[in-house]
Design goal:
The protein is 28% helix and 23% strand. It is of the alpha/beta class. The protein has a single domain, classed as TIM Barrel (Alpha-Beta Barrel). The two termini are 31 Å apart. The chain binds dihydropyrimidine-2,4(1H,3H)-dione and zinc ion (3 copies). This is Dihydropyrimidinase.
């Protein structure tokens, strides 16, 4: 099977230039002018930009949480992703207490295999760090899994203590595995939440007030210090505030192997959104919580200066009508998480590139190239380059779109970005050379997405 995409403008993390792209057997075989030779399929990209398909390295599909389960599975979540120009993702496989990491991975493979539309990988969240589980980290690369996640918050379910985090970092380092950390001080947060409930402070806005930024900054600094001492690679997920950015920057300035991401929603919303009328604020409950405008400004600056190298979604979708309402009368029972897998590329492009905050090259780097490199997919995914998988999105810089849950494609009943008008959107999505979305129409079969075996040393 060969395809040539002709007449478009290719965008990579390094530059933007006119070029055709030739694809043979799903892999990019040439990028250059006048490649229109014999091919099974010719795609006219005149007036379009040809970008690497988005890679979202932080998602929670079909994840049990807060007594319910995230509402997007590996079909609906992938449909939303593909519609938004995302062609691969790395999801969190959560170790059930008592299970081995291998057994946890089997569970997540079963969720994905028959449904997948885009390519997928897994990070394993170590939630029950018994000695034999810590030992098991060394076996993960053979299973194609080269990153683990450790939670410093969510006591009683996901949180592990400092001793376990330190051991995980050390074992992961020795195995060439990257450790991801959810950095919030879970013990202090439990104390603050219990106090709020005792005082009758039950509304969604107390979610943000009981998870103050100092407790994210402190935990970020603690994890970074451990990583620095061990020389262990650390990736801080969902950085939301100035203090945490300072800790990351400090560690980086000393040469510590610390990298970090932010997530789309922290760039657009603030703690004020938790105080919307009625129970609407519950739609914005995620952890860490939404912060202040000054934090948003600091996050954009960090995306520009490289302190943050990735924008992911933390797509963790709970419907408002049946799931967020579990926390009516008690904010601690609102399922934590917000959706964004479909909107990420469009809203970041609009606010970032159209808004003059980042360049088109930075947009490509943040959404595809840097996540690929960091997560063991460099040279395989995330770039319009010879030898890479032909995961491509044809982007129309001029096309406008109003985001609304009514026309989104996942299982969600709301969008954070409801009513937001964006300019620039995907009009075609290709995965390994195969068109999977054509002008808003899905043309891929469930089960056609593949598991990505990732390399160590990302
Ligand atoms: N935060 C969320 O908002 N959802 C998933 C898990 C997390 O840490
Ligand atoms: Zn988290
Ligand atoms: Zn107290
Ligand atoms: Zn998450």
């Amino acid at each position: 099977m060969s395809t040539v995409i002709v007449g478009g403008t290719v965008v990579t993390a390094e530059g933007t230039y006119r070029a055709d792209v030739r694809v043979d057997s799903g892999v990019i075989s040439a990028v250059g002018l006048d490649l229109a030779g014999p091919a099974d399929t010719v795609i006219d990209a005149a007036g379009r930009h040809v970008l690497p398909g988005g890679i979202d390295v932080h998602t929670h599909l079909s994840m049990p949480s807060f007594g319910t389960e995230t509402c997007d599975d590996f079909y609906t979540g992938h449909l939303a992703a593909a519609m938004g120009g995302t062609t691969s993702h790395v999801d969190f496989c959560i170790q059930p207490h008592g299970a081995s990491l291998a057994a946890a991975l089997d569970l997540w493979h079963a969720k994905a295999a028959e449904r997948a539309l885009i390519d997928y990988g897994f990070h394993v969240a170590v939630t029950d760090p018994r000695p034999e589980v810590i030992d098991e980290i060394a076996t993960l690369p053979d299973l194609g899994v080269t990153s683990i996640k450790v939670f410093m918050a969510y006591r009683g379910t996901l949180q592990v203590d400092d001793a376990a985090l330190f051991s995980c970092l050390e074992r992961a380092r020795d195995a060439g595995v990257l450790t991801l950390v959810h950095a919030e001080n879970g013990d202090a947060i439990e104390h603050l939440m219990a106090g709020a409930i005792r005082r009758g402070e039950t509304a969604p806005k107390y979610h943000a007030l009981t998870r103050p930024p100092q407790l994210e900054s402190e935990a970020t600094g603690r994890a970074a210090a451990m990583a620095e001492v061990l020389g262990a690679p650390l990736y801080v997920v969902h950085v939301s505030c100035r203090g945490a950015l300072d800790r990351v920057r400090d560690a980086q300035s000393r040469g510590a192997p610390v990298t970090a991401e932010t997530c789309t929603h922290y760039l657009f919303f603030t703690a004020d959104d938790l105080d919307r009328s009625g129970f609407e604020g519950a739609k914005f409950v995620c952890s860490p919580p939404l912060r202040e405008v000054a934090d948003q400004d600091a996050l954009w600056a960090a995306l520009r200066d490289g302190t943050l190298s990735v924008v992911s979604t933390d797509h963790c979708p709970f419907r408002y009508d049946t799931q967020k309402v579990l926390g009516e009368g008690n904010f601690t029972k609102i399922p934590n998480g917000v959706p964004g897998i479909e909107e990420r590329m469009m809203v970041l492009h609009h606010a970032g590139v159209n808004g003059g905050r980042i360049t088109l090259q930075q947009f490509v780097s943040l959404t595809a190239t840097a996540p690929a490199r960091r997560f063991g997919l460099g040279g395989v995914k995330g770039s319009v380059a010879v030898g890479s998988d032909a995961d491509l999105v044809l982007w129309d810089l001029a096309r406008e779109h109003t985001i609304t849950a009514a026309t989104n494609h996942g299982a969600m009943d709301y969008s954070l970005y409801e009513g937001m008008r964006v300019r620039g959107m995907p009009v075609m999505t290709l995965r390994r050379g195969e068109v999977i979305v054509d002008n808003g129409r899905l043309v891929a079969a469930p089960g056609s997405g593949q598991f990505m075996r990732r390399r160590t040393g990302g």
